[in-house]
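Reviewer comment 2.1 asked that we show a complete input and output for one of the modelled complexes. We chose the FE2/S2 (inorganic) cluster case, as it is the one discussed in the main text.
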Amino acid sequence: MPRLVSHPDEVKIVTKRFGLGAAEINRYVELGGYESAKKCLAQGPEWIIEEMKASSLRGRGGAGFPTGMKWSFVPKQSAKPKYVLVNGDESEPGTCKDHLIFLHDPHSVIEGTIIAGLAIGSKLGFIYLRGEYRYLIEIMEKAVADAYAKGFLGKNIFGSDTEFNIITQTGAGAYEVGEESALMESLEGKRGVPRIKPPFPAVVGLYGGPTVINNAETIATVPHVIAMGGAAYAAVGTPRNGGTRLFCLSGHVERPGVYELPMGYNLRKMIYEVAGGVRGGGKLKAVVPGGSSTPVLLPEEIDIGMDFDQVGKAGSMLGSGGVVVIDDTTCIVEFALRTISFYQHESCGRCIPCREGTDWLKKSLTRFHAGFGEAKDIDNIQYLAENMMGRTFCPLGDAAAMPTLGFVKKFRKEFEDHLNGKPCPFAKHVEIAMV
Amino acid sequence: MSAETMSVFSPALAARFDLLVEKYPLRRSALVPMLLYAQDEIGYLSDAVISEIAHRIGITELDVRNVATYYSMLRFKPVGRYNIQVCTNISCMLRGAYDLFDRFQEELNIGNKGVTPDKIFSLEEVECIGACCWAPAIQVNYDFHDELKPELVPGLLDGYRGRALAESEAKNA
Ligand SMILES: Cc1cc2nc3c(=O)[nH]c(=O)nc-3n(C[C@H](O)[C@H](O)[C@H](O)COP(=O)(O)O)c2cc1C
Ligand code: SF4
Ligand code: FES
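Response of the prediction step:
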């Protein structure tokens, strides 16, 4: 069982039922569960969307799109059925928050899915989990079955004449399937290759019907927004960045773990107070603030509030909430190489800048780290990454190029230290062999 | 399936598949789950498995293969009874994943994607498994082991070896 952590600065909204046995449906109900869904059933779609807009909740999957606005894009009338699709593919390195939600509070995901369904007028929702999360899929399946048995799902939810159903789905290993259009392809039984946009999923999505796709944490937050009221939820965070978020602190910190903190919480405090500082009193070298695809920040750049706008202004992204802390025993060239190896492995190969670009970057960095780099290679790596940006079919190309650019620009000196056959200045030299 | 007796799957799995294909708005939505569940039972996607799944969904074998080759968990060769997947991605790497991976290689005397001669274990370096805050993390089949240290590797392997032995004894009894 993954270890739960706690800190006095946490504001427990989404995590408030963690560790309380809420995976069991009666316990969830006892703790106030499913009241929000009932309220939404009574209030109707316009009211739900207004509350969601007032909450300024932004998507927790990475891009930070305002959830209320996303839902409002779904056409009211549609010849084809509409769908809700919950994205639990959670594969961005550094991110493990949805894991805890599925484990400790599966009914919050179900309840949020029902509410999303009521808001857009859908009768069917899908909850898609990455294939590696088998034990969590089993927890979700049981929770769904229990919700049917209680009449919270099915033909007449909560005794009303409204129908809503949920199907849980397993993936089978693929980061790219987390991209929303690739996710729909996978759910339709195909390779996870993204679709061209527009049309956007809100108009033409799953099986050609209008579809709302949200991250699992976003969906699990929805019942709390309804329970608190949109305005009260918004007040917890910063302007345009409502509420809290689950920050996954990992790497070289004293107390790694998933902490729920208000949006806009100071990054330096998050590392030094909440997570107990750099392990063993070590020295901070760099921070990857929002999952492996977000550009690295230097120690002098971490006095920022962790919300989408402030991290954006600092030249990086809040991303998926994965804060990876790196101390000064780490070789950044090696870290950059491990990062690009991942994107090279996961590129679906559909477009050339991403397929070839990630491959070239991996090759250059491998050679470089092994001590066979030349001065011009540093510029070449930068040139390659710059030319991938904005030229790919889906954002994976950018996700690979952005961190690489950050490492080369901010740690150029360290790249230079690897030049001309000089051995890596860091003691441990690892073989990165992922193919 | 026309003749259920011909199925390569156990009666329980075959029954589960009968329901699964009817569950979605589109039959082939069952494809990815079926491939994974079939692999869990048979060990890998053999020709017979692919053929039966194609038949059950009503698509070509080529179509099934085309989809199956996309997903990293799906495989076309058997692995060990216990497949050890060591995450070496960034959060795990920072907390010693490569030392851990080395230790597994030494203890098992196999490399990446290797299978032990007794077929009890196989070893694989994998990408992030969503346990970054509990790094270094591994999965043995679907079981997570968090915050694993190299010195705990022999004991962990002994545990699984014992389970494999007990299983084969139970089968022979
Ligand atoms: C390559 C790639 C991988 C992604 N992986 C995930 C993922 O694992 N989980 C997720 O929720 N969103 C992921 N996303 C973002 C989704 O495309 C989508 O924006 C998100 O699920 C929308 O939900 P939200 O608005 O609630 O954030 C990924 C995007 C890209 C480009
Ligand atoms: S950017 Fe990469 S992952 Fe996205 S479509 Fe192109 S090749 Fe595929
Ligand atoms: S990086 Fe290893 S589990 Fe995420």
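Chain B has two domains: 11-68, 82-172. We note this here for comparison with the apo prediction described in Section 3.2.
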